Amino acid sequence: MTILSALARLYDRMQDAGDAPRLGYSNEKISFAVVIDAEGNPLRLADKRSHAGKKPEARVMAVPEAVKRSSGIKPNLLWDKTAYVLGVIAVEEEDEDGNKRVMPGQGKRTAAEHAAFVGTHRDLLADANDPGLVALRRFLDRWRPETFVELSFNTDALDQNIVFEFDDGTGPGFVHEGQDAVGILVAPFEVKSGLCLVTGDNAPIERLHPKIKGVMGAQSSGASLVSFNNDAYESFGKSQGDNAPVSERAAFAYGTALNALLARDSKRNLRVGDTTVVFWAEAPKPETTNLAELLMSQTFQPPDDDAEFTNLRAAIADVASGRPTNPDLDPTTRVYMLGLAPNAARLSVRFWYPGTFGEFACHVARFWEDLRIEPAPWKGPPAVWSLLYETAIRVGGRPKAETIPPLLGGQVMRSVLTGQPLPRTLLSTVIARTRTDGEINGRRAAICKAVINRTTREEKIHVSLDVDNTNPAYRLGRLFAVLERAQAAALPGLNATIKDRYFAAASATPARVFPLLVKNATHHLALLKKGDNGGLGHWLEKELGTIWLGLEADMPRSLPLEDQGRFITGYYHQSWTRTTKENDQ
Fold it and tell me: CA 91, CA 87: separation in Å to the nearest integer?
């Protein structure tokens, strides 16, 4: 199933559940409503905002679909900002005491914007018989911008979105929700004019596809997922949307569904590097769909609470095994994940993953296992996006997200979701950052382990210290950790240790560095054995000997990228895994 058809199906389910606006409508933030009577007289300005928080917040309402407006004048139908609807905007005035206050006024284009709104609706409603539409037409014929002050309307409404309510004496009702209003707006969609590649139906072809809002880094006014704005992208003399014929109905459906997934209050999106990821599930029962989406959300952003995480791990393991104990968990549930990134005024698809919840659980469980390392740097498996911070440049000890390689987020997510090898770029970038800033932590060691174990068919790197591992790079990492331990014990308080000075060179060209380090370690061990830490000195000397036994006489002149990752993992295992004998010293 293609991206657009999957999103269109999602819209149909959302509309059936009452979570999406009808065709020809969109969810917009509305603050006030002008209440009018049958003669078009304004009765009052009704506040539609929510006052539950510290500040009033606009109410999200399904209204006729917003027009695409850049620098030109183009009114929305049956709603808009006060400049269009009432011909006034907010201006600051200073009273005699020098205090500033907001008052209704007009800007350079306000009169033209209001005239466009009035003219458009006179034409639209010329033949209307619905009482609410007739009342709106009469209101626009009579309204003057000065009336805003004469009726003492709330200045909080200035520059906000306004709708109309018709009160026939039995109570107000929104004009844009009337049956005749819906008919006027939806009527153009009923004309048969072409074959839609998404639905296969004959319907009008969308010329300009909907703007998608909420993708990190894209234009705030929205960006296009489907767009043709240059002759180089067109073919066979077709222009704009005719190059990829998608019906107005299908374009509206996929745009509405995608904008709902990307909404700020949606829990079905996340950020991974420069990629914005949306996800959703599809199942016959709403309970199954909601539970699958909840677990997907928690998987991408694991909960901090131990009990919640334990439940999450158990649920993923159950689904991965194909035998879930919860009847609302179904491994055959369809799941979809889409990665988007900004590309000028358009959107670039980083990845598209349609699959089943069972496949998703298997891949996630494997990824968690790949990352598992002892001692554990996390309370539980980390969020995928948090791994990318180990590739970022650190300024003042804090990683800068903007320095993460731009394509890496999408590559990592694609690997996690499909079970494919993790990108080698992830390993190379982590190693480069380690060599630059000298920080070797459990997160970076876990990344090295995960990438190497997925990429190579050789012996896997174990979760914890593997004393039987004969890989030269892994053993050299262990050896470096013991040498560092010997130096720190013999010469406490050093400003710069061998890790600060030699780690980068030792992990890349061990034959050039280790002879010097071993020579210095001889003096360090001698000092330890003569002092109060004699027991520790003897233990470190024995540990060095044990590691040496597994190494060839000739050290490698250089280590390839994967072996540098093994070096880091061996160093981490040896540094942070203390044996009983060492702890007793």
Answer: 13
Nearest-angstrom CA–CA distance, 514 and 505: 9
Distance CA 480, CA 286 (A): 56
Spatial distance between the Cα atoms of 330 and 293, rounded to a whole number of angstroms: 12
Position 581 scores a pLDDT of 44
Determine the Cα–Cα distance for residues 198 and 6; give it in Å rounded to an integer. Answer: 9
> Residues 6 or more apart from 80 whose CB is under 8 A from it?
117, 161, 162
Find out whether 445 and 568 touch, Cβ atoms under 8 Å.
Answer: yes
Which stretches of 39-181 are assigned E, i.e. beta strand? Answer: 42-47, 59-64, 80-81, 89-94, 100-105, 161-167, 172-174
pLDDT reported for residue 186: 64
> Helices in 239-285 by DSSP H: which ranges?
248-262
Domain coordinates in residue numbering, the chain: 1-16+191-263, 31-188, 357-455, 472-584
Beta partners for residue 101, in sequence order: 93
Structure tokens at 199: 């639905």
Q: pLDDT at position 189, please?
A: 47
pTM: 0.80
φ, ψ for residue 206, nearest 5 deg: -70, 125
Cβ-based burial of 176 (10 A; exposed 0-12, middle 13-18, buried ≥19): buried
At 165, is the secondary structure helix, strand, or coil? strand
| Token couple for 548 | 């040496």
If you count DSSP H runs as helices and E runs as strands, how many of each does the chain have, helices first? 20, 17
Parallel, antiparallel, or unpaired: how do β-strands 269-272 and 275-282 relate? antiparallel
Q: Mean pLDDT of successive 10-residue segments in the chain (585 residues)?
A: 90 89 89 95 95 91 86 92 96 78 91 96 91 95 94 94 91 88 66 76 83 90 81 63 81 93 91 91 94 93 84 91 88 95 88 95 93 88 88 87 88 91 94 92 95 83 92 94 91 88 94 92 86 81 87 89 95 79 46
d(CA 349, CA 480) in angstroms, rounded, equals 44
Q: What are phi and psi of 63, to 5 degrees?
A: -130, 165
Say which residue the tokens 């606006």 belong to: 21
46: which residues sit within 8 A by CB, 6+ positions away? 32, 33, 34, 35, 165, 172
- Going 75 to 80 to 86 to 88, the CA torsion angle's sign is negative
Closest by alpha carbon to 138, among 235, 297, 146, 130?
Answer: 130
| Contact between residue 479 and residue 473 where contact means Cβ atoms under 8 Å apart | no
Q: Closest by alpha carbon to 559, among 519, 517, 515, 505? A: 505
End-to-end CA, the chain: 63
Pairing of strands 346-356, 334-343: antiparallel
Distance of CA 433 to the CA centre of its chain: 24
pLDDT computed for residue 578 by the predictor: 64
Q: Residue 380, Cα to own-chain centre: how many angstroms?
A: 21
State how far the Cα of 161 lies from the Cα of 27, in Å rounded to an integer.
12
Give the three-state DSSP class for 46: strand
